[in-house]
Design brief:
182 residues, three-stranded antiparallel β-sheet, 63% helix
């Protein structure tokens, strides 16, 4: 049985659910914008790029962004996208990586209330209770820590949005003519 269903005292509070919801919404924004960012780096129309990025995890999108940034550096020598823009892309990508393990816990752990100010999560994995795997199989967060995570994620959405707007966009309008000449 899921942890928060075991008793009324284990059920998360509305404040817990609200904090988790804020994190979830911002992470969804981040993952969507990673796909848009990748389309800009690949000089591909955004809608067409979604057919590819929709099947990628956030981590895979980040790997592809890093690789595309390296191609702009080595192959194109920053002719299409400037060195400063690539630096910004890699910087925000690193910030997202730092938040990803926390996000993954919310997506994959079972949660329970420790008390009104703290929640406890575990992945309920099997195995011997020792070592690295065991240490990574549970975590507690206070409501203040959840708010802090949201305060880190929220501005990343704004930075990603502004960065995307500064990059060249391959618009669909007129694309057929650009390719076929007709």
């Amino acid at each position: 049985m899921p942890l928060n269903h075991t008793s009324q005292y284990a059920e998360l509070t509305d404040e817990h659910f609200q904090a988790i919801g804020k994190l979830t919404v911002e992470w969804s924004n981040i993952e969507f914008l990673l796909g848009v960012l990748l389309s800009r780096l690949l000089i591909t129309p955004e809608f067409l790029a979604r057919t590819y990025t929709d099947h990628m995890s956030g981590a895979k999108r980040q790997e592809a962004i890093k690789e595309a940034s390296e191609i702009h550096r080595y192959r194109y020598r920053y002719k299409l996208i400037s060195e400063e823009q690539i630096r910004q892309v890699l910087d925000i990508n690193n910030q997202i990586t730092q938040l990803r393990s926390t996000r993954n816990k919310f997506a994959h752990f079972c949660w329970s209330r420790s008390n009104d100010g703290e929640i406890f999560g575990t992945n309920l994995s099997g195995g011997i209770p020792k070592g690295r795997k065991h240490r990574k199989s549970f975590v507690s967060y206070t409501v203040a820590e959840l708010a802090e995570f949201h305060q880190k994620a929220y501005p990343i959405v704004d930075v990603l949005s502004a960065l995307i707007q500064s990059l060249p966009e391959m618009e669909e309008e007129g694309l057929t003519k650009k390719i076929t000449g007709r």
